[in-house]
Amino acid sequence: MNETDNYQQLTLTEYNFERHFDESLAIEWMQENWRKAFVFCGLYAALVFGGQHFMKDRPKLDLRRPMIVWSLSLAIFSIVGAVRTGFYMVYILRTYGFKQSVCHQSFYYGPVTKFWAYAFVVSKAPELGDTAFIVLRKQRLIFLHWYHHMTVLLYSWYSYKDQVAGGGWFMTMNYMVHAMMYSYYATRAAGYRVPKSCAMVITSAQMAQMAMGLTVVALVYQWMQDGDCTSYLDNIVWASLMYLSYLVLFASFFYKTYFKGSKVKAA
After folding, report:
1. Active-site residues: which are they?
2. HAMAP family in the record, alphabetically (predicted)?
3. Hey, where are the domains in the chain?
């Protein structure tokens, strides 16, 4: 039985919407439209910083109920995405090994994950809406928050169009971390007290994600030289800079928030 046949065995576990999703059209659309991510980022920056100016002399808004709905929706989406991509990641690891989990492009077109790969990159646009709650509630907007939102959107759309190696790890880790993060936000918005240790665990998971991201990028570059990983040097460079900057910023955030007592909002 060849590799393709093995992947096809997983179609039995697909839901109808996953099975009927046409990833070729999604990839074609992204190849033609990925630059629109710059437009979204431009509008985002204008609305965020324009919104801060608008709210400067106005009272903050009480958005507890919308925050619950928003965070809970993203939490559910991330949990399901984490389960579906995580299931497929475990399958690839157990069947083909770690190198294939990094280099193989089946996450973009394979059973179960082809829908969730596209949903992952597209979701980075509506996730920009997170910042509206910070602006309208007149909370402190830190650099890490808006920088992270903009660069993730740009890199995700830029990479999906080329189906670069490592994407399976990137999306699976992000789904998992966001499942924890948005569940935490929803719980806090609902008025429940959450132990500080939970926030520390989430930030630690974010740092671990960035460290693993750098590791995956390094391995893609190494195995790309042997022709085993499909990627491009410019993608490797941008991914390395992105993950390294995230790791530094999240480590700084962790130190300032949990060891210096700085009361900044989680990214």
Report:
1. 148
2. VLCF_elongase_6
3. 3-258
